[in-house]
Amino acid sequence: MRGWSGATLRRGFVAKGHGGQKRAFKVKLVGEGVNDYSGPYREVFTDAMLEVTNIDPSGHSAIGVLEPTANNEAEVGDGRDLFMFAQHSESSSDERGVDTVSREEQEMLNIFSSLTHKNTEFSRELEEAIVFLGKLAGTACRHGIPVDLPLPLGIVWKCLSEESINSMDSLKEIDILAFRRLKEEDESTASSSVDAILSTQRRLLNSFAEGIGSALPVELLSLFTGEQLRDIMCGNPDIDVELLRRVVEYEGYNEEDEVISYFWQVLREMTTSERKLFLQFVWARNRLPLKENDFDAPFRILKDTKVSKSDVNDYPLPSASTCFFSLVLPEYPEKEMLKQKLLFAIENVTTMESDYVTNDVEVSEGWRGLT
Fold first, then answer.
1. Neighbours of 152 (CB within 10 A)
2. Which tens digit of pLDDT belongs to each residue from 235-269?
3. CB-based contact 90:120 (threshold 8 Å)
4. Where is pLDDT greater, at 18 or 370?
5. Which candidate among 134, 144, 298, 317 keeps its CA 20 to 30 Å from the CA of 159?
6. How far is CA 112 from the centre of its chain?
7. Around Cβ 362, how many Cβ atoms within 10 Å?
8. Which residues are within 8 A (CB) of 330 and not within 5 positions of it... i.e. 6 or more apart?
């Protein structure tokens, strides 16, 4: 996908029976017997965002594209879940020292940091990776798939929408300890120090915007505020259970059934991370749209009719069809049993539903078998 043209990513095919999901390409998951009726397509973007925000045991970025902000690492201030573009060890040696140039010259160097920055092989690889991240985010947005991409409002979303920002407020959002330290300095020194800290982020934002521009007209982003742009691309970070309930349809059940009451109670009691796992389990994405009108299809809860009377002591796990945003729910007699089964399913089921039986030959051929 990295080498695909913008025209390829801007395509919006809608296949009959795919729930209205627009797609630029079709997905084949090697080793998983699933047809792409839009679930695997959404899974590509969801998994990509999970990978790019994955943290290794040492607390650092697993793949080095995004890294936790200082507030995220220290768990202080607001926005403790935020990530920013990865800094690299060579950045400090490339920045001009504030003592060797005037304040006006330093401001110009910060503004044109993309041009004055000394490129290395590492920095070029990082910029290419961030361009690709922008392509993914832009394509997902074009096709109505909110992505879990927790980037700072000030140095990313407001800048993309060409909204004026306050450098100190932007610093506070990502590093409140540095913000407090610089507040004690005189205004001119603090301003230069903040610009030096944020200049690398501004430079890498250009790469992110370049990637977004492959799929979206970036000239129109200024029509929105930073908050609006973030909400359009990322959706609601909190899984609103009541919003989900307003778009539900039942098949084999009705609203008054006891098991349905158990289900909604369990969903409300889940943590935010558990609700994200649930949404990925049933819809191959981990963020909801902002309002009812943005749903391409209703959330469907179907009764599992395969459970027989003899299975009362061995109820199966719930299953899902991510392509059609549906949950197949056995009629559990107790709330605790439903909770246990549902949590086990969303935390342990990593493959998608089986539309057909795969085989060892297909797995060994991998993606080459598609040609």
1. 24
2. 988 889 999 999 999 999 999 999 999 999 999 99
3. yes
4. 18
5. 144
6. 30
7. 16
8. 303, 304, 307, 315, 316, 318, 341
Work out the number of other CB atoms within 10 angstroms of the CB of residue 220. 9
Looking up tokens 């992110």 gives 208
Q: How far apart are CA 5 and CA 23, in angstroms?
A: 15
Please give, one letter per residue, the 3-state secondary structure of 179-231: HHHHHCCCHHHHHHHHHHHHHHHHHHHHHHHHHHCCCCCHHHHHHCCHHHHHH
Looking at the chain, the number of H-run helices and the number of E-run strands are 17, 6
Within its chain, how far is the Cα of 52 from the centroid?
9
Q: Distance between CA atoms of 238 and 246, rounded to whole angstroms?
A: 16
Round to whole Å and give the CA distance between 188 and 102: 11
Burial class (CB in 10 A: 0-12, 13-18, 19+), 8: middle
CA distance 156 to 167: 12
Q: Would you give the DSSP letter of residue 307?
A: -
3-state DSSP call for residue 119?
A: coil
Distance between CA atoms of residues 49 and 45, nearest Å:
6
